[in-house]
Amino acid sequence: MKLVVATRNKHKMEELHALLASWPVELLSALDFPEIPEVEEDGATFEANAIKKAVTFARATGCWALADDSGLEVAALNNAPGVYSARYAGEPANYPANNAKLLRELSGKTDRRACFRCVIALSDPQGHAEIVEGRCAGHIITALRGTSGFGYDPLFVPDGQTQTFAELPADVKNAISHRGRALQAAHDRWQELFMTRGAGSPAHKEENPATPSRGRGFQPRGIAARFKSPMKNNRQRTTNN
To answer: How far apart are alpha carbons 31 and 101 in whole angstroms?
Structure first.
């Protein structure tokens, strides 16, 4: 079974290759399909962006497609940068500039609680999708630490740890990260589909893929009947974290 990951982010693909190593799939990325244009991530939520990317690549390639949208929510900033995380400091996306802006915005604030969120969407070739989510709570420190990872990793210390994401060994980070937890949820939820190589098309009429609901709300009735296009909305733009 071929599975297309709808991203051109090499850092993200490195993480996904490690996290998806046990899945019986041939993993491809958006880099394998240069003819497919960049998907504009203009949804109001992580869910909307993830579904839009997964459905676009599934329909264009004729393969099952996986996409994620993720970002950092900081309590003292009313959950900003959120879906704007990748381009928090403006276009084009710039990790050092984003980190510098985050530190400026948090200057003098004592509440430094933060949470990384990752929503993963899986779509069949007909465009029927389902989502799962992973979260990792922690706090933002006052200066960059560590050289691994990317994005906000040098500023984020997950709960229960003393090191930032950029300092933690990759296996430790992958086990507790928002993306790792979302992928574990995906594996648990969709394992049967992968093991049976995804026979059949989801038997559910597609709704508007840009208005998703949470995957936890689905009531599965077998692999095929479980896939649907969710429904709900609330913000904009994606991240590379």
So the answer is: 30
Question: What tokens were used for 222?
Answer: 């077998």
Residue type for position 107: S
pTM for this model (two decimals): 0.79
Angle between helices 178-195 and 10-19 (to 10 degrees): 60
Residue 18's pLDDT is: 79
Number of C-beta neighbours around residue 125 at 10 A = 19
Q: What is the mean pLDDT of residues 21-34?
A: 89
- And the tokens for 198? 């995804």
Annotated active-site residue 42? The verdict is no
- Contact status, residue 190 vs residue 122, Cβ threshold 8 Å: yes
Antiparallel, parallel or unpaired: β 113-123 and 129-140: antiparallel
Q: Which domains does the chain have, with CATH numbers?
A: 2-226 (3.90.950.10)
- What is the model's pLDDT at position 21? 80
- Tens digit of each residue's pLDDT (9 = 90 or more) over 59-83: 999 999 999 999 999 999 999 999 9
Q: Check 32, 68, 69, 159 and give the catalytic one.
A: 69
Tell which residue, 224, 206, 226, has the closest CA to residue 216: 226
**What is the distance between the alpha carbons of residues 83 and 100, in angstroms, rounded to a whole number?**
18
For residue 46, what are the contacts with CB-CB under 8 A and spacing of at least 6?
A: 69, 70, 71, 83, 117, 118, 119, 133, 238
- For residues 218 and 130, is the Cβ–Cβ distance under 8 A? yes
